[in-house]
Amino acid sequence: MSANRIYLYDSTLRDGQQTQGVDFTVGDKIAIAHELDGLGIDYVEGGWPGANPTDDAFFAAAPTLLRARLSAFGMTRRPGRRPEDDAGLMRILGSGAPVVCMVGKTWDFHVEVALRSTLAENLEMIADSVTFARTRVAEVMFDAEHFFDGYKANPDFALRCIEAALNAGARWAVLCDTNGGSLPHEVEAITREVAARVPGERLGIHCHDDTGNAVANSLAAVRAGVRQVQGTLNGLGERCGNANLVSLLPTLMLKMGYETALSREDLRHLTHVSRVVDERLNRAHNRHAPYVGENAFAHKGGLHVSAVEKDARSYEHVQPEDVGNARKILVSDQAGRSNVLSLLKEVGMTIEASDPRIDRLVRLVKEREFIGYTYDGAEASFELLARRELENLTPPFELVSYRVMDERRMTETGAPFTLAEATMKVRVDGELHMTVAEGNGPVNALDRALRKALLVAYPVLVDMHLVDYKVRILGAGAGTDALIRVMIESTDGSGRRWTTVGVSSNVIEASWQALSDAVAYKLYAA
Amino acid sequence: MSANRIYLYDSTLRDGQQTQGVDFTVGDKIAIAHELDGLGIDYVEGGWPGANPTDDAFFAAAPTLLRARLSAFGMTRRPGRRPEDDAGLMRILGSGAPVVCMVGKTWDFHVEVALRSTLAENLEMIADSVTFARTRVAEVMFDAEHFFDGYKANPDFALRCIEAALNAGARWAVLCDTNGGSLPHEVEAITREVAARVPGERLGIHCHDDTGNAVANSLAAVRAGVRQVQGTLNGLGERCGNANLVSLLPTLMLKMGYETALSREDLRHLTHVSRVVDERLNRAHNRHAPYVGENAFAHKGGLHVSAVEKDARSYEHVQPEDVGNARKILVSDQAGRSNVLSLLKEVGMTIEASDPRIDRLVRLVKEREFIGYTYDGAEASFELLARRELENLTPPFELVSYRVMDERRMTETGAPFTLAEATMKVRVDGELHMTVAEGNGPVNALDRALRKALLVAYPVLVDMHLVDYKVRILGAGAGTDALIRVMIESTDGSGRRWTTVGVSSNVIEASWQALSDAVAYKLYAA
């Protein structure tokens, strides 16, 4: 085993489950496990058998992992009983996973006050749980809970807990900064001391982001000798989240020269995996995420953009393509001409920099942004605007009018029901179509009425559908009078996605604008 | 000056302006400048005079700061001219701000390729710009652009740039990791070398979060001797953002024992300032932000919660109150009884832990969460649910039916207009009210119709209004058929805020549920 080899342990499916607003279905867990496996992660922690029905169902489903080892999380035996008599421990050992990661106390304060046990018994709990587990599963690791606080309080006891686990045959002892309160220089110093006593290649690190230092703490521990890094995708986890494996991987591999199970080709899938997880959990992507965020390589300032185009190396710290990301030039109020020109180039529109129509387009963009539109994140709407302005792109259809009715009444039995109906007049190729459709909401009804009107002329629309619909109020404090901005993300059979925007004080009208741009873009790009 | 004193420099109003999706108005900048001043920040960078109209208007408005010094950002003079002949530099020096922060190149590659100048001229540009500026403003500082990359490429040149600025009278030379690619151990090592050559108390640090290490890099530089830290509120900034001052302040003051201009009382305003900035910019709060995030001290797991209640010190790394935050117990599927009990205690409902009605409430919560409701972040809806279930709280009004109509037509001149009308039947105290109202959108029309029906019986509603309205699709890929979750945040005259939730496949119905809970909560809490 190379001294340079880092093992990655992902606990998204357990720690990530603790994130506020996150609730995995079994299907979610299986899908994410396969993504982690495909990426090249060494260990996938599937959950805590016995803790909740979703985890039990996941382990029962026994997903086949081709590269990663599946791990089950749990606790050492409780005080005062043998491992084989501890129902919780037996549950974990019987989950079918080849690897078990058990957590135990290493802070004397917790042992005496929270567990109401003794230091000696705690060491036995660790040692005999690990020893027993080794007879049941292929690999055992020990999570040293609150290790850094424990070490500061009583270094000798904390170390003896680690040694007890390793001597009993644990493959790894993982130092956990459970409350996230340790700082990088502390983690590095303490880890060096531990690695002077036990072999670094049997140590792991598990950090939380309560001070914004989870990534730095993990890197500090690696520099001090640990060779396993635990974390989650996109930094999921309770409170401020766990160490973000997505931020750590490129730094470890591209900047610090460590080896992982990932090839350079695997690393190029990183952005995709990060986004798939967010989509699965219906969470907004963090556009500012290191390496994989949509804006990680986005340049907004006007003078800056021309410098970047001259020599990307001088402004970008890694190549976006190495992590599956891409450079992006943002359209905005500040940047004026040069940014709009860059964006036009990106969407494949060749136009002379001195063309006076550029000024008109820039003015138009600024006007629309002033009333609430944003083209950051809605590039398909920008492209339509630009092509209509510069290439006289004719709209594929023309809305004449619509009327949406939305009613909530009671059935005879007193249960509430709602129905929505949209009537629409649309002109397509000079011909007027009047359609009506019902839907389970007003936007859905509008969408259906529009498709009825367009599908005969444009059968290519059949594969198109909406994947995300976001609404925000613009301008704080104006209540239900405020301007509303709607962003719609659409996709078709090809997997391509595009986002469009609409703004109005009327949520239906704003939705209509975004919907109509989405359809027009599909018909343009066909 | 104490060796322990850290000076804080905030560039939210300049770097933050570069954030995708952020566009400050002059009013926004003035308000945020006052918040920074009130908090205790030493320097408030107001913008770049001459770069855009908003920044010019801000400096012209000359907001009065009581504690902080206002700073203007800009560049050193360009090659081949004297400082007094450089229009851009003169603009900055004439802005009225007593402090000027000028950026210059320190990476030989940039000087030669991007600027097309010579190393010798670059040193002159720095020296004479600073010398000249000292005759015009009270304090000058130098931002050493791309310093760490420059030092790695040519340490001698990079250092001479720093020395040129300090020898010419700059109060500070700030080491900038402009592309965010440096790692903490590199920043610490390089900074130590620099601080061996020039006094650390004249050095500053300016980091970006492209590897997720901006906070750690800033702390590393402080440990290596710098005494000024630059950053932004909430880590605003282009690409992955700047170093987050909100994460740095509590660590520097509460954990590392440094002094700043903030008192302990000032620090208790940190959470508030962080949220005010987000609200001003209409950005979603980061619920997971270190120290100030709504979930920074939130506990979700069931067994964990009882341990925390026994001894918070054993699980929380600092006291939430020290930064103006509070502990939070989350309701969720996982945690069952003990979490619901904790939440009930928090909303002031005393009930026996063994009371069988708790089971019914827990089951109800799980059922509703299963179909898409979330009470994380919608605690007012939870409280109503709990009080109706456990205390037989009677709803203050009963919806019989509503009908919303939303039309988009053309005026005679061909301009589109939309109108929305809501008709509603509501029973209040046994009496049936039928109202109609128009609105500039369907939710606004419903809101108005409801108030018409309720204001006579409940005049206290007159101060209530909606401040945020968020809509998300649940369940990826289901297009406009999907379930929609609406969260509404409301406030009244007292400044108190509460959030309610509604779920339906119909956006109007989901909005109605959240609206009706919002009103019911106000009437309950009165």
UniProtKB/TrEMBL annotation, chains A, B:
Domain Pyruvate carboxyltransferase positions: 6-268
InterPro entries attached to this UniProt entry: 2-isopropylmalate_synth_dimer, AIPM/Hcit_synth_CS, Aldolase_TIM, Citramal_synthase, LeuA/HCS_post-cat, LeuA_allosteric_dom_sf, PYR_CT
Top-rank taxon: Bacteria
PANTHER family linked to this entry: (R)-CITRAMALATE SYNTHASE, ALPHA-IPM SYNTHASE/HOMOCITRATE SYNTHASE
First-level EC class: transferase
PROSITE patterns on file: AIPM_HOMOCIT_SYNTH_1, AIPM_HOMOCIT_SYNTH_2, PYR_CT
Name listed for the protein in its UniProt record: Citramalate synthase
GO molecular function: (R)-citramalate synthase activity; 2-isopropylmalate synthase activity
UniProt-listed Enzyme Commission number(s): 2.3.3.21
Pathway: Amino-acid biosynthesis; L-isoleucine biosynthesis; 2-oxobutanoate from pyruvate: step 1/3
Keywords: Amino-acid biosynthesis, Branched-chain amino acid biosynthesis, Isoleucine biosynthesis, Leucine biosynthesis, Transferase
Gene3D superfamilies per UniProt: 1.10.238.260, 3.30.160.270, Aldolase class I
Entry similarity comment: Belongs to the alpha-IPM synthase/homocitrate synthase family.
NCBIfam families the record matches: citramal_synth (TIGR00977)
Catalytic activity of the protein: pyruvate + acetyl-CoA + H2O = (3R)-citramalate + CoA + H(+)
Pfam families assigned: HCS_D2, HMGL-like, LeuA_dimer
GO biological process: isoleucine biosynthetic process; L-leucine biosynthetic process
